[in-house]
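Support reply, case 0932

Customer input (verbatim):
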Amino acid sequence: MKETGFEKVPARDRRRFPGISSRAYEHPADRSALVALRKLSGFDTVFKALSGLLPERSLRLLFLSDSVRVGETQFPHLYEMLRDACYILDLETVPQMYVQQDPRPNAMCIGLDEPIIVVTTSLVELLDEEEMRAVVGHEVGHALSGHAVYRTILLFLTGLALKVAWIPLGNVAIMTLVTALREWFRKSELSADRAGLLVGQDVNASMRGLMKLAGGNHLHEMNVDSFLAQAEEYESSGDLRDSVLKILNVLPRTHPFAAVRAAELKKWSQHRDYQRIMDGHYPRREEDKDTSVSDSFRESASHYADAVRSSKDPLFKLVGDIAGGAADVGGKLRDKFTGAAGGGSAANGGAKGGATEQG
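Our regenerated output:
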């Protein structure tokens, strides 16, 4: 059943974002990873084939028969949160939402033609109202960004990889796609966290929710500042061996680590981009058709370059140092062969030397 229109407004005074494009909150790494994913050899062919093979009807029937569909008479408080989130992000069609019995706290947005949101009973029991509101906004953000399609393919391919593990080459080919999808999906989670903040508009609630995902329902034993300090320590401590271990630890995961997500979201909440959205200045969906893919890729590349320069991770620092050293060597070679270093006047030479020292 589809629902359109909104008879109710948010329960408390929160800003609404009419016509907002997902580009407003998407993390640059999300967009670049998706571009890279689509450039992966054979991905388009596999995607088109899987679109016709994926058991989406089976998934819908499974949730319909073995989960509880959220509505006015079942989990009505979640239903109001869902409608509220769609109202704020101006998502006209309210997705179906299910609560599934599971001891693991989790939520997901899947589906090819129409997104379905699923939350587990453990998550519902773990979070308070404002924390849950951020999670529902997170999943609606996935729906608005069109992430559900790729998440569905990831679930299917992960299961398929287990079934064909005995076929060496077949398993390698599938796992290549799975690894690429996981890399993208981890980035998409950072985008959806931002959407959750736009819906909840309570950064403390978002921080509490991520802390609970890491440490359970023991808020009296946890502290947001200390939790964020963990992320700082994780990023900056250790040596190159630790950097490699971080990469190996994250490869099999679909989500970034909770402390890292919290630090990323906190940083964005203090950035001018977030404030501009809150002030009503954001990209509109009607402008999406005019956006340039190359511009998005350049923005993503710029983000990665900035990340490497500012990162305290030993491996990233080494990459930055090597890149900086190469640029410095290149500059010296250019000066040598153009005669800029020694062939000019004393005044020019002094100016060149001063500029080099400052750089």
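We compared this against your earlier run and they match. Two observations from our side: The first strand starts at residue 68 and ends at 69. The beta strands are 68-69, 96-100, 107-110, 116-120. Please reopen the case if you see a mismatch on your end.
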